[in-house]
Amino acid sequence: MNDGTGDMLTVTELARELGITPRAMRFYETKGLVNPRRAGTTRIYTHRERGRLQLILRGKRLGFSLTDIGEYLDLYDADPAQHDQILMLLEKVNTRITALEVQKTDLDATLEELASVRKQALIALDEEPVRVAAGS
Fold it and tell me: How open is the CA angle 110-115-120, to the nearest 5 degrees?
């Protein structure tokens, strides 16, 4: 159903282009994040909807919730100058960076502890035959 301009795609064509399933696209539609046109029962995606889906996928990849993504997309429609959108993005990005830095610190501590446990287990395995031999 591609009209040759690259501006109108079916759900299957756009899903293939974006590397997602048509089901995922319908899910985003039910959440109100995209609003494709209809030609009968066929969903038709325009350049605008493609862009919105790309923003949704990027936001998900960066760990933002669908609610956050939806708020961002709503501001995009409401603020042609995008000033409010950029301020919201900056606030959410800063919050996400802070959360990831905390997670990184926690992961580093967990990795250190696991490395210590592994080292202790390997030492115990190396000593075990000596104890078994001494006990016989």
Answer: 125
Distance CA 20, CA 28 (A): 11
| Alpha-carbon span 134 to 136, nearest angstrom | 6
Chain segment 37-87, per-residue pLDDT in tens: 998 888 899 999 999 999 999 999 999 999 999 998 888 777 777 888 889
Predicted TM-score (pTM) of the model is 0.72
41 CB-near residues (< 8 Å, 6+ apart): none
For residues 6-16, one letter each, b for 16 or more C-beta atoms within 10 angstroms of the residue's C-beta and e for the rest, the string is: eebbbbeebbe
What does DSSP assign to residue 113?
A: H
